[in-house]
């Protein structure tokens, strides 16, 4: 089989879609599948055909120059031509379109692309609660192309049952939708055990938050809850537009040493923080958090999770499927603080749930499981 992935960005870019696609491609090695990727070039990356010395699992990788962004969507007028060249040279049996990605609409206008079956991998909706208001204004122009893409797709892959059931965009196409949960390569969270711990204090519940400091991530709720629980030591990894306001919140609280905004850190430092924490908290407040790959990273490392139970998101479903932790009402800092107090006093339960989470990860969310399910789908539509 020859599969062409149409994506937004790719390794070494970091993001949920990018990390998942990288792990998926590596997991397909040895499966008699030839794969190529067409993506955008991020700032600092060279456009054009890429050197594959560090990516031996790919047959081709082409990055297309970006000339700006409109509401997070890359503006890339060269994408349609790059798609035509890739279709002509690589000759795929199937197109795997990772959405949202405005540039993927180019397949609608390509005779070569229309002659090949395609699948849509639905990573998230474009509009909905918590998503940018500007997108809501632009969506009427986007929706006809989105729906045309879904109409022609042989299969649509959703990442969790709750997200599929609550997606307005996917509602007309439920009969062609299939749930395949995201997966993760556990090597992604391996640590150098010779390095010292980044959690110097002892005796407190060590809680880790990871993600962009933006409103929908709900980190303000987590900070306020942690301030009310002296038994907690909290570190939040990531940068973003709320860094200043969260810093101001901590200043008004007297800059307690129990809470640290680390900013962005490299993978090695992040993995060490994960390896030595007691609990991972994902406090997102709405469906803008479609799945939460950090939950899989936590489970792979044997860490329990504390997660907001957002209706229509895959987060709560992941936790319940794996019995990997606790849920709380989104944006409810009092309930979150109460959960933290309970967990801080439940060390035996914490360890048991961590062991259960690691086992559940291997059974349900290892990237090999996801790759096997997708390969079965591909085989149904490849000649």
UniProtKB/TrEMBL annotation:
GO MF term list: glycosyltransferase activity
Domain Glycosyl transferase family: 203-351
Domain Glycosyltransferase subfamily 4-like N-terminal: 15-183
Keywords: Transferase
Pfam families referenced in this protein's UniProt entry, alphabetically: Glyco_trans_4_4, Glycos_transf_1
Name this polypeptide is given: Glycosyltransferase
Organism from which the protein derives: Wenzhouxiangella limi
Taxonomic lineage: Bacteria, Pseudomonadati, Pseudomonadota, Gammaproteobacteria, Chromatiales
């Amino acid at each position: 089989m020859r599969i062409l992935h149409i994506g937004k960005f790719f390794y070494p870019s970091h993001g949920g879609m990018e990390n998942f696609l990288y792990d998926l491609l590596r997991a397909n090695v040895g499966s008699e599948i030839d794969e190529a990727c067409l993506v955008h070039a991020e700032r600092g990356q060279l456009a054009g055909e890429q050197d594959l010395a560090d990516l031996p699992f790919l047959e081709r990788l082409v990055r297309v120059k970006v000339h700006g962004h409109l509401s997070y969507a890359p503006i890339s007028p060269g994408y349609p031509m790059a798609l035509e060249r890739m279709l002509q040279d690589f000759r795929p049996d199937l197109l795997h379109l990772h959405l949202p990605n405005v540039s993927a609409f180019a397949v609608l206008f390509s005779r070569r692309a229309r002659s090949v079956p395609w699948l849509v991998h639905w990573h998230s909706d474009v509009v909905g609660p918590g998503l940018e208001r500007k997108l809501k204004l632009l969506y009427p122009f986007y929706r006809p192309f989105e729906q045309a893409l879904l109409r022609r797709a042989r299969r649509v892959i959703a990442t969790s049952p709750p997200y599929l059931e609550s997606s307005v965009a996917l509602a007309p196409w439920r009969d062609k939708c299939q749930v395949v949960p995201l997966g993760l390569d556990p090597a992604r969270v391996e640590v150098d055990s010779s390095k010292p711990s980044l959690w110097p204090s002892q005796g407190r519940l060590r809680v880790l938050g990871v993600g962009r400091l933006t409103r929908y991530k709900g980190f303000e709720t987590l900070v306020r809850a942690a301030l009310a629980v002296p038994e907690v030591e909290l570190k939040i990894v990531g940068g973003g537009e709320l860094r200043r306001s969260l810093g101001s919140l901590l200043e008004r609280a007297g800059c307690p040493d129990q809470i640290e905004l680390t900013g962005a850190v490299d993978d090695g430092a992040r993995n060490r923080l994960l390896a030595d924490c007691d609990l991972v908290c994902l406090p997102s407040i709405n469906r803008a958090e479609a799945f939460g790959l950090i939950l899989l990273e936590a489970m792979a490392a044997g860490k329990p999770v504390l997660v907001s139970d957002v209706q229509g998101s895959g987060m709560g479903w992941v936790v319940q499927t794996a019995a990997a932790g606790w849920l709380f009402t989104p944006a409810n800092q009092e309930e979150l603080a109460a959960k933290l107090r309970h967990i801080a006093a439940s060390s035996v339960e914490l360890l048991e749930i961590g062991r259960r989470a690691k086992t559940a990860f291997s059974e349900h969310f290892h990237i090999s499981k996801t790759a096997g399910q997708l390969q079965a789908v591909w085989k149904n539509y490849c000649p």
